[in-house]
Amino acid sequence: MKSIYVGNIPFGATENDVRDLFGEYGNVTSVKLIQDHETGRFRGFGFVEMEDAGAAAAIEALDGYDMSGRPLKVNEAKPRAPRPRH
Question: RRM domain: from which residue to which, for each copy (predicted)?
Fold first, then answer.
């Protein structure tokens, strides 16, 4: 299973739109579009989890893909760095 970072997603896109797009390359197990904690508004990026074989093909094909006039930024997600607690 691979986690894929997807950036520059159009603000009108839904989880189903992203799932359908990545589903062309393999089995999508989850899609999470990130929202701002304060406003609840979509922040323009998210994460897709896919099986390894399909993930590599999706990253290759969809990095730079034009989705509603916005070029997607697609790469393998990096582990989140620990954030200091305040």
Answer: 2-79
Quick one: which of 2, 83, 73, 22 has its CA closest to 44? 73
Q: What are phi and psi for residue 74, nearest 5 degrees?
A: -125, 125
pLDDT in tens, 63-74: 999 999 999 999
Taking the model in full, what pTM does it have?
A: 0.90
How many Cα atoms sit within 13 Å of 39 on the Cβ side?
Answer: 5
Q: Which of 54, 51, 76, 53 is nearest to 63 (CA)?
A: 76
